[in-house]
Design a protein that fits this description.
This protein has about 80 residues and is mostly helical. Helices cover about 55% and strands about 5% of the residues.
Length: about 80
Amino acid sequence: MVSVKVMTMDFFNYLQLDRKNNLPIYRQIVNGLERFCADFPPGTAIPAERDICAGLNVSRTALRHALQECVDRGLLVKK
């Protein structure tokens, strides 16, 4: 499988968070990752955890919760 690096700006367009929404932040991240995975081919790399946390201004705990849910559902693969 060939890994394709996605432009960081493109990635964050899928992860727009609404802090006034009652939906937990991790769930909003999961929803954004679902949209991202639907539009990009398998093997597309996402930015590093620290870059995502900084770009979204979220805790690493919230991000890791979202990423693990996506891994559990088969949307993402950890390498």
